[in-house]
Write a structure and sequence with these properties.
- GO terms for molecular function: iron ion binding; iron-sulfur cluster binding.
- It holds the Pfam family Fer4_10.
- It comes from Candidatus Marsarchaeota G1 archaeon OSP_D.
- By secondary structure, the chain is α+β, with helices and mostly antiparallel strands.
- The chain has a domain at 22-80: Alpha-Beta Plaits (2-Layer Sandwich), CATH 3.30.70.
- Helix content is 21%, strand content 21%.
- The chain contains four helices and six strands; from the N terminus they run αββααββαββ.
- It has helices at residues 5-9, 27-32, 38-41, 66-70, and strands at 13-15, 22-24, 47-50, 53-56, 79-81, 89-91.
- It has a two-stranded antiparallel ribbon. Strands 2-5 form a two-stranded antiparallel sheet.
- Strand 3 (47-50) and strand 4 form a beta hairpin.
- The chain is globular.
- The structure holds iron/sulfur cluster.
- Residues 29-30, 33, 36-38, 54, 71, 73, 78-79 line the site of iron/sulfur cluster.
Length: 95
């Protein structure tokens, strides 16, 4: 039987950057964003809605860039996404 996604993710480790590689640039666009797909597509639950703004837990990021694809306001500058500096970030143990 295949392992669950949660079990597979538990094999991963992180070498965290001290600075977030994901930034919410325009919270007003996020407030107006009705579907907020970033809350759904990220398997690591990096994005959460906190009363009136999007919060980002960049340390949990798996660098899949699902949010980058799903955010329909990305092109309008809602968020900035770059890989963590200096090769930091997630370390996949299973490829
Ligand atoms: S980050 Fe993008 S998808 Fe998420 S709430 Fe903001 S505009 Fe919407």
């Amino acid at each position: 039987m295949p392992e669950s996604v949660e079990t597979l993710l538990a094999h991963d480790k992180w070498d965290w950057d001290t600075q977030s590689h994901i930034k919410i640039v325009d919270q007003e666009l996020c407030r107006k964003c009705e579907s907020k797909p970033c809350l759904i597509v990220c398997p690591a639950r990096v994005y959460t809605w906190e009363k009136d703004h999007i919060a980002v837990n960049y340390q949990a990021c798996l660098e899949l860039r699902a949010c980058y694809v799903a955010c329909h306001e990305f092109g309008n500058g809602a968020i900035q996404w770059n890989y963590p500096r200096g090769g930091k970030g997630v370390i996949f143990k299973l490829g």
